Amino acid sequence: MDLNITVGGDDIPTKKETTGIRETRGKGRGDSDGKWGDIKLTKYSDIKWRLNARARKVKKFTTGIPELDKVLGGGLAVGLNTFLGDGGSGKSLMAREISKNHKTLYLCCEVMSDAPDSKEYPNVTAVDYTQYLVKPHKAIAELFTFIEELQPELIVIDSMTSFFSQSNKALPESDVREMVWKVHQAADNKIPIIGISEIRGQGYNRGPAGGQGVKHGCSMLLDFRAYTILSESQINLFGASLGDIVYQVQVYKDKAGKSSVYPHRLYWTETGGYKVNRIESISKNG
């Protein structure tokens, strides 16, 4: 049955003399083919494939850090992975450590020193986006041109909002959301991308730089936090010294799985090793 029809019609307003209330009478109102107002229906045969569709399996990409892979349920998603956290919470630190293990294209959008030294790690290519900024759509086109020509195994964008900003002024949230979604759609199940985003603001205004679209437009969302060692119990727990900084990461969202699959947090210090702790439950946002 062809359901590609237009329903509804011109409204003819009238007035009830006894109450003064306006009512609407028009062509198709109340009829079976005017049921949904002026919404134009499509062919059912074109959309029924959406019913009870099986979840598509998302590929995993090992980070080269076994403890981190355990926390991530096997590795990063092959797609956009958002590293979210306050300034100094270990996002760039972890991205650098992962990039050292792979042929990586590291987009430096704030300072060039974010990327590992290419002399020490020739497998990492730093790309300068700290100057001569371009419009967001052109930046994305340049990114995938680099991918096509250089064939990296991993991409790091440090940071996403800086990469999408053509000047020192921040883009509107709606524009950032669109750009993040474009990268997510293009990279999905094709190449792993780490997109770094900082949390800013206080109270009700606290959230990702660039808005909530940064959290939702990704395959995997990782939450980063940092703590200062202040007690004897913390020293014993982490094997660190008083005053050391301990970094924490856990999965907040993974479109390939369920939150119950990721009952661990990873802790590490800049001078020490990695420690995986099991937790009872984790929150899943997005």
Q: Which key terms come to mind for this protein?
A:
disordered N terminus, Rossmann fold, disordered C terminus, alpha/beta, 8 helices, two-stranded antiparallel ribbon, globular, ten-stranded mixed β-sheet, 14 strands, 286 residues
Instruction: Give helix and strand order, one letter per element, not per position.
Output: EEHEHEEHEEHEHHEEHEHEEE
CATH homologous superfamily caption of the largest domain: P-loop containing nucleotide triphosphate hydrolases
- Label the CATH architecture of the largest domain: 3-Layer(aba) Sandwich
CATH class of the largest domain: Alpha Beta
Number of domains: 2
Radius of gyration: 25 Å
**Percentage of β-strand residues:** 25-35%
Largest sheet: 10 strands, mixed
Mean pLDDT: 81
Helix/strand class: alpha/beta
Residue windows where pLDDT falls under 50 for at least 5 positions: 1-32, 280-286
Extended strand count: 14
Descriptive overview:
This protein is an alpha/beta fold and 286 residues long. The chain folds into 2 domains: 11-50, no CATH class; 60-278, Rossmann fold, CATH 3.40.50.300. It is 23% helix and 26% strand. The protein has 8 helices and 14 strands. Strands 5, 6, 7, 8, 9, 10, 11, 12, 13 and 14 form a 10-stranded mixed β-sheet that branches. It has a two-stranded antiparallel sheet with strand order 1-2. Strands 3-4 form a two-stranded antiparallel ribbon.
